[in-house]
Description:
By secondary structure, the protein is α+β, with helices and mostly antiparallel strands.
Amino acid sequence: MEKTKEDLRRLLRRIDGKGYKAYKDIQGQYACDDFELHIDYVQGDPFASPSRLRVRVDNRFPDWAYQNRSREVALRDFLARQFARCIRRFAKGNRGSGKSGGIFIDQPGQEILERTAVVLDGDKLEARFQAGLPAFGRRIAGQQAAAILLDELPAIAGHSLFPEPLDEEVLLNHLLVNEDADALRSHLDGLGLVAFVANGALLPRASGVDPRPLEGGLPFRSPENMEVDIQLPNRRLTGMGIPKGITLITGGGYHGKSTLLRAIELGVYNHIPGDGREFVVANRHAVKIRAEDGRFVEKVNISPFINNLPQSVDTLRFSTRNASGSTSQAANVMEALEAGARALLIDEDTSATNFMIRDHRMQQLVPKEREPITPFVDKARQLYDELGVSSIIVVGGSGLYFDIADRVLCMVEYEPQDLTERAHEIASAHPQDRANEGGQDFGALPRRVPIPESIDAQKGRREKVRAFGIRSLQFGAEEIALSAVEQLADNSQLNAIGDALLYARKYMDGRPLVEALDQVMADIEKDSLDVLSRRKEGHYAVFRKLELAAALNRLRSLRVE
């Protein structure tokens, strides 16, 4: 017989004042007026991780709200945001010890990501969230629990998961912006572009820790000769198209070079209306590359950039537990290429100088036979000509890249100017005396085979995986440092990546690393992020294979053949 909200009310009355473990009695499913309440897991005490709950309602939204993948993802994102707003509006918060009384749902940021906080399951919508079941000390506060589950929760669900209370115009705009951003990104390859920045975009952020747009920031305007006009499903856009090949972003300090690159690197994701970067998009396989002193590297072929190390260190299968700036940047490039990168995004401010350039004077002082490093300036052209991998590079201190650049953008007070012709004139008038050290071809990409036993999340008697913001991931006894993986945008991506590393072991059966990760991504595409866990997890957000590979490559227990 199906349990009802009155059954839940009686249960809470019966266990009121008892020891906290008696809360286990309320696990199960309850029919409420407009929704089903699923109490999937009850925490062990009021100081433990909150209990996991789900609300399922009939999907009353019109077909246009989820008629394609872009709109469905945007609808779910919008409803998760609305659920979070309603928590702040209707939930009274703390009611006793520990996390008592709190209701928590995965809170989206500036990006629109597919996430498991709200899912569309056939003709049902399901919100997944957590609640701190209230107690005084370790005694159940049954009346307060009834208020949360039977008064506050119906108000939250009623005002967030049904179309009637929502502003249809605001919802529609959310869907159309996401749909157009997806369409815009899908046009890039056909237009020969690696990125696009719409006229009128607002790129500067409020601060380094506040990702909202800077109030009073200057709207972006493309150089006329780089303007591209694109018809999207719901609007027509004009903006700057950055072509495939090698593009330099230069200019004086504080004129917006890194701000432009940062907007492009986050253009692998869509953004909410009002963010300012709604129509700044990049090739979905673009990767930010930087130096990363101290990182772990496991048998990566870095020989295209570093060779002939002292003591005959093997750079075809280079390993270290404490990489230098240049070796870490070389490894980051090669691992990104192994994982399928199609564009590299590099800022000189976060790069190792000796990885980026080596001028004529230094070549005279230290001849090539005594210099293991081949600078990126001598490999970028090979990368594009041989592998079709583009580069967008921020440079402000050296003109060595003028010779290889297909396009040179100069930022002047946050406005780009196309100075390609002038840069090439300067290069012709002041030819480099330096020798190109890049060799005849780019070199071989890594093709490594992971050993599944090395991906071990065991800590004590159980596996332990826990994300800390977007900076690190506890994986068993190891901490995976991810602060240098700059395209991670959401803590829930790390939650999903941690479990995806565990899930990936089933495909580590002698196949190359990239093929195992391809299979993980294919399973997620086919069966959703839910494939990563046996339970109904509400704190996952979609990630790219490139970030999954980055996390695996930084796992210090990783071993490969």
